[in-house]
Specification:
The complex is a heterotrimer. Chain A is an alpha+beta fold. Helix content of chain A is 36%, strand content 17%. Chain A folds into two domains: 4-77, Ubiquitin-like (UB roll); 85-158, DNA polymerase, domain 1 (Orthogonal Bundle). In chain A, a hairpin with a 2-residue loop joins strand 3 (52-55) and strand 4 (58-61). By secondary structure, chain B is α+β, with helices and mostly antiparallel strands. Chain B folds into three domains: 23-31 and 464-605, Aldehyde oxidase/xanthine dehydrogenase, molybdopterin binding domain (Aldehyde Oxidoreductase, domain 4, 2-Layer Sandwich); 39-132 and 195-242 and 249-282, Aldehyde Oxidoreductase, domain 3 (Alpha-Beta Complex), CATH 3.90.1170; 289-457 and 613-765, Aldehyde Oxidoreductase, domain 4. Chain B has 20 helices and 28 strands. In chain B, helix 14 links the parallel strand 18 and strand 19. The N and C termini of chain B lie far apart (92 Å). In chain C, 34% of the residues lie in helices and 26% in strands. In chain C, a hairpin with a 2-residue loop joins strand 12 and strand 13 (216-225). In chain C, 53% of the residues are buried.
């Protein structure tokens, strides 16, 4: 059994700590050590985006991060977004637009879209497609996901 | 107390955009897929896969693995004396003890306290192999002297299919043009975003509970019971929400049996989840096919015959891929009017991965060949491709040579709608004229159509589905259906159909569909059958409930039941819309009366289709569907990159039920077809998978999608629920064929093999390509 | 989900001297972690064996950021690709790097991957490497000498030795790169072959830069990726362009020189023949665009 190290970090706004192995990914830490299963394992090598989380405010693949590197950082998972305004707006839009089928890619899409809307609130459809190029969906063909994100993006620019 | 009469205007849920019931929790990350379920006391299982392609197993030493702290069990074939073969042809032992026939073969399995320990234990297992010559090509398996992969099949033939209607010799004699071409269809795989997994647990009385993502829970329950020699009533399957199906979960797989064995041995719940690499290696693929099509027509454009020979690479073990001929022969015999047809498949064992069922089930492969030759035939007789297709497209009422009765048929409308909205003929001409013009980017447009079953497919003894409907004292409806939800939105559609009958809002429905202990029998989610069959079943139960409610209301109101209807949560006067009694009150009155009654009804719907006879003839589905897709491409002749810019899709769906859901199915299917045509390629060389990962197996990503323009043809099927037919598979089926035709329109070059990757297209454009052939070079 | 074989020690120094001191003592038994976007998949798949110590350098002060020092842009090795693309100095002076970043993996990976990591990972197909060669970047390597930080510079052309192999000594850290401000009328283009805008490992990539004045190119620098064991300069292609009028004849000659100068391999992504065709066709196309601009 590999050695365990104790780390401290903020998770969805709450201070937290965990005992993690040296080679453990942040994804494994979130799912198996902390028990938050909203962040998904899709491939384990940063190609599919199912494990997207926010780290110090920017989106990253949790499967590529070493859990140890979470020390002192602020993590946000899909569970932490529902209560926030962008999260709520995205939720309504994704439901309205029919952008969810099996739903497995959806948490990663939600987190990535949150990051996009924070950095480019006026993103158009082309920019949205580029922004989610690292999030693979096998069910929807992406069209309704892009429409949903675009509808939130347009709303925010109207304010 | 006076209550002023209220009238409720008529409304309908049909054709509306209805949001998916489980979307909110999926968005918030609250949905518990199988990977997210953890039972207390569970152990984690991992499988040792051989990594050899073809070898004798000389010895397996698990002693070090067994001794590792935290390991509860290590099993090999030798530990399970009651093990028997599984799969479609029962040629597949879950654990291999004597011989490895493919790279993914399961040699041993470990159950341990953690995934980490299980993986360490795998590394401690020592296996000694003696390599055997590899059969990596189905053509080699057929040569004399080729080693037999299964001792009981010395010629390596797993299955044969032969079909014929009419007389192809006569058809050929009547033809003015005859073409023969060979096409090669490649390996692709489902790539469900949620990897495969299972949790198995035996309770204190020896009853088996499986958390499984199977798409055929009732068949599975029966099969597992047979397999384990248990009473089927002691096997229960619970289906957690699934991270994608697409046909990948229709067979029994070794990992499932292994998981159950470990649970049985350790007397603990055992959870087994694949890695993504394992998902690539061990999941069944789409059926690769080498296909020669010979077809002909008269100079007036009438199709005369089709003659087909296919070689199916069966892989090391037989799964549903070997039965794709059932569907392929339907397409060859009946997509367009074909008076004479002859079809032959030989499915041959190799040491390659095995193929299973995958959205479209052989239809993509068949359509790829047919629709290219349709274009080629039209060109040969100098007829416009659209007119040629219209001339041979069937009308409602026709019965095909294979005995398929096209009761509702929107084929011609699909063709003309797609052609009109894509400005097909104008673009075709323009692009053709532009082929030799300067400029490296060439545009092309291509058309293809699909025929697929839309009312189930009667392959099992029953193609039916059961529903139990329950209304509680508050008019909250529980719809208990045998039909599984695999992300396609079936539970929302079923709720919609029932609410339409009972005049209730969708928010009043709870759907229960995922526990064999509770739900009534359904054969499974395949053949695009769920809306049609589970839908009719749900409607049947709803109509019974309505009759009971209206009878009770009529008794109370002292009028005839046919003067009444249900709308907006009320019983109303049908003629005026006046609300008479609110439903919850009526239900409570029924419940708390002297002759107490609850409203609970059941219905089992068996579609009026028939089993095919020994010649594969018969009206195997209760309805059929069509689609025409027009694909527009831009070919960069300096690189071979084909960009799919637009797809115009016209789908005969009978009737649009949930507009939002059906659009999603079509958009998703189109993009899956795009992947099959352009980007996805599971590269298997000498039995070894070269790209079992997303880095090198290219799924379509968001920036690559085409514009998608969808049109619905509502042919209003007489048997379908509210006139609807199935649509789950259709959108993926003819994209590759249309793309092939589009590339030809752009460049004048026809490519007979998939996928149209840049290098393949570039080679074809520059005379460096190779067309597929039955001869091995 | 899988974990690498057990390593023993984890360090996360905040101070450059500390980190270099450890590297010196540890004599090569250290795996360096920056963004982790290459390291994690390589460890998980077994392509890389973990060493005794995992040293996370992400917290070392002073290794991030972009600064203009006189006529030289200095980019710290820990600058992420996303930060690089957003940086005003890079956008203004070195837009070629922004173009390269746009083709790099995905947004999520760009937010974590570091320029230093991309350089030290030394993939022949690394997306920032061809542009850095075209821009004439120099690597800055630091080690401890007599207890003090000592820095040496090495032109990036000389830094790459083979796939995954560089001239960074085991006791050195890459501090960053220095890039001289390009001269006036300098223009450069980057092309990465793929069917997707990003998320692909390059089948081939091409960088071309030079001063274009009165239709004549000078100070030409050409680099190719994924056609050799390292990203490489293309001297024969450069010679075919240097001092010449950028017309059809020159372009054809340069494209031919490019095709002849590369010796790519066959692999799961493409065949050697096709790579050569792409190098030829795309060099020609890029130069035609430059000529028209």
């Amino acid at each position: 059994m590999s050695q365990k190290h104790e780390i401290d970090f903020t998770l969805n706004g709450i201070k937290n700590s965990a005992r993690v192995g040296l080679g453990m990914s942040a994804l494994t830490m979130l799912r198996d050590v902390i028990g938050l299963t909203g962040t998904k394992y899709g491939c384990g090598e940063g190609e599919c985006g199912a494990c997207t989380i926010l780290v110090d405010g920017v989106s990253q693949n949790a499967c590529l991060m070493f859990a140890l590197d979470c020390q002192g950082r602020s993590l946000t998972t899909v569970e932490g977004l529902a209560a926030q305004p962008t999260g709520a707006a995205l939720r309504a839009a994704l439901v309205e637009c029919g952008a969810v089928q099996c739903g497995f890619c959806t948490p990663g899409m939600v987190v990535q879209a949150t990051h996009l809307l924070a950095t480019r609130p006026d993103a158009d459809e082309e920019a949205i497609q580029r922004a989610i190029e690292g999030n693979i969906c096998r069910c929807t063909g992406y069209k309704k996901i892009v429409e949903a994100i675009a509808s939130v993006s347009q709303t925010s620019t109207q304010e | 107390m006076t209550v002023s009469p209220k009238t409720i205007a008529p409304d309908t849920l049909i054709g509306k955009r209805i949001v998916k019931m489980d979307a909110p929790e999926k968005i918030e990350g609250k949905t518990r897929y199988i990977h997210d379920i953890n039972l207390s006391g569970q152990l984690h299982a991992k499988i040792l896969r051989s990594g050899r392609v073809h070898a004798l197993i000389k010895s397996i030493d698990v002693s070090a693995a067994r001794a590792l702290p935290g390991v509860h069990a290590v099993i090999t074939a030798f530990d399970v004396p009651d093990m028997r073969p599984i799969g479609v042809a029962k040629d597949h032992m879950p654990l291999k003890g004597e011989r490895v026939r493919s790279e993914r073969d399961e040699i041993a399995a470990v159950a341990a306290e953690s995934v980490e320990i299980a993986e360490q234990a795998l590394k401690l297992i020592k296996v000694v192999y003696q390599d055997l010559p590899v059969l990596a090509d189905a053509r080699d398996s057929q040569k004399s002297g080729a080693p037999a992969i299964h001792a009981d099949k010395p010629d390596n033939v797993a299955m044969r299919f032969d079909y014929s209607h009419g007389d192809v010799a006569q058809g050929e004699a009547e033809s003015d043009v005859v073409l023969e071409d060979t096409f090669e269809l490649h390996y692709v795989t489902h790539c469900c975003m949620g990897v495969s997994g299972m949790i198995a647990e035996f309770d204190a009385s020896g009853n088996l509970l499986m958390y499984s993502n199977t798409q055929v829970p009732f068949l599975h329950k029966r099969e597992f019971a047979d397999y384990l020699r248990m009473d089927p009533s002691r096997v229960r399957i619970i289906q957690p929400p699934i991270g994608g199906g697409f046909g990948s979960k229709l067979d029994i797989y070794p990992f499932e049996v292994i998981c159950v064995y470990l649970a049985r041995l350790t007397r603990r719940p055992v959870k087994l989840v694949f890695t993504r690499e394992e998902e690539f290696l061990a999941s069944p693929t789409r059926q690769p096919v080498l296909l020669t099509l010979r077809s002909g027509c008269k100079k007036d454009g009438t199709l005369t015959f089709r003659q087909v020979h296919t070689l199916h690479d069966n892989g090391a073990y037989t799964s549903w891929g070997a039965t794709t001929p059932f569907v392929m022969m339907q397409t060859f015999s009946s997509l367009y009017r074909v008076p004479h047809c002859d079809y032959h498949t030989v499915a041959v064992y190799t040491n390659n991965p095995y193929a299973g069922s995958f959205r479209g089930y052989g239809n993509l492969q068949a359509t790829f060949a047919i629709e290219q030759q349709m274009d080629m035939l039209a060109e040969a007789i100098g007829m416009d491709q659209f007119e040629f297709r219209m001339k041979n497209a069937q009308d409602a009422g026709e019965v095909t040579g294979q005995g398929m009765h096209f009761k509702s048929c929107g084929f011609k409308q699909c063709l003309s709608t797609a052609a009109e909205h894509s400005h097909f003929q104008r673009q075709l001409e323009q692009n053709r004229n532009n082929q030799k013009a300067p400029g490296s980017i060439k545009r092309g447009i291509g058309m293809a159509s699909t025929l697929h079953v839309g009312g189930g497919a009667k392959i099992h003894p029953s193609d039916g589905c059961g529903t139990i409907l329950k209304l509680d004292d508050f008019a909250q409806l529980t719809l208990i259906t045998g039909a599984s939800e695999i992300g396609q939105g079936s539970e929302t559609v079923l709720a919609q159909l029932v609410c339409e009958e009972l005049g209730l809002p969708i928010s009043r429905v709870t759907v229960v569909n995922n526990d064999t202990a509770i739900t009534p029998w359904d054969v499974g989610v395949h053949a695009s059958r769920t809306t049609f069959i589970a839908g009719n079943s749900a409607i049947g139960a709803a109509r019974k409930a309505k009759a009971k409610i209206l009878a009770a209301a009529a008794a109370k109101l002292e009028c005839d039941a046919d003067e009444l209807d249900m709308r907006g949560g009320y019983v109303i006067r049908a003629a005026s819309g006046e609300a008479l009694i609110d439903l919850p009150r009526l239900l409570r009155q029924l419940h708390f009366s002297d002759k107490a009654e609850l409203v609970m009804t059941t219905f089992y719907y068996e579609p009026p289709s028939v089993h095919q006879d020994k010649g594969f003839k018969g009206d195997v589905s209760a309805a059929y569907t069509w689609a025409t897709q027009v694909v527009e491409v831009e070919v960069d002749t300096d690189t071979g990159i084909v960009k799919m810019s637009r797809v115009t899709a016209a789908h005969d769906v009978g009737r649009v039920l949930n507009r939002l859901g059906i659009e999603g199915q079509i958009e998703g299917g189109v993009v899956m077809g795009q992947g099959y045509a352009l980007t996805e390629n599971l590269m298997v060389e000498n039995g070894v998978m070269r790209n079992p990962n997303f880095r090198d197996y290219k799924l379509v990503t968001a920036p690559e999608i085409p514009e998608i323009d969808i049109h619905f043809i509502e042919s209003m099927d007489g048997e379908g629920p509210q006139g609807a037919k199935g649509v789950g598979e259709a959108p993926a089926i003819c994209i590759a064929a249309a793309t092939a035709n589009a590339i030809y329109n752009a460049t004048g070059v026809r490519i007979h093999g998939l996928p149209f990757t840049p290098e393949r297209v570039y080679r074809a454009l520059h005379g460096q390509g190779e067309q597929p052939s039955w001869e091995r070079t | 989900m899988t974990q690498s074989a057990p390593q023993e020690q984890y360090l996360a120094p905040v101070d450059l001297e500390q980190a270099l001191a450890y590297l010196q003592q540890a004599a090569g038994e250290v795996t360096i972690l920056a963004g982790g976007t290459d390291l994690m998949p390589q460890l998980q798949s077994g392509r890389l064996q973990p060493k005794h110590t995992l040293m996370n350098i992400r917290r070392i002060a002073g290794l991030k950021g972009v600064r203009l020092e006189g006529e030289v842009v200095r980019i710290g090795g820990l600058t992420t690709i996303a930060e690089l693309m957003d940086d005003p100095l890079v956008r203004h002076h070195l837009p070629l790097l922004v173009e390269a970043g746009d083709h790099f993996a995905s947004s999520q990976v760009r937010n974590a991957a570091t320029l230093g990591g991309n350089i030290c990972n030394a993939s022949p197909a690394g997306d920032t490497l061809v542009p850095l060669l075209v821009l004439g970047a120099t690597a800055e390597l630091a080690r401890l000498v007599d207890g003090k930080v000592s820095v040496r510079s090495l032109p990036l052309d000389e830094f790459f030795v083979g796939p995954g192999k560089t001239r960074r000594a085991p006791d050195e850290l890459l501090l960053g790169v220095r890039i001289a401000l390009p001269p006036e009328h300098f223009s450069a283009r980057f092309f990465k072959f793929g069917t997707r805008p990003a998320l692909d490992i390059a089948t081939i990539s091409i960088g071309i830069g030079g001063v274009l004045q009165d239709g004549v190119m000078s100070g030409v620098r050409v680099a190719f990726g994924a056609v050799a064991a390292t990203p490489v300069r293309a001297p024969r292609t450069e010679a075919a362009l240097e001092g010449k009028r950028l017309d059809e004849t020159t372009i054809a000659a340069a494209a031919l020189a490019a095709r002849n100068e590369v010796n790519p391999i066959d692999d799961v992504r493409a065949s050697a023949w096709y790579r050569k065709e792409l190098i030829h066709n795309m060099t020609k196309r890029m130069l035609s665009h430059v000529a028209k601009a």
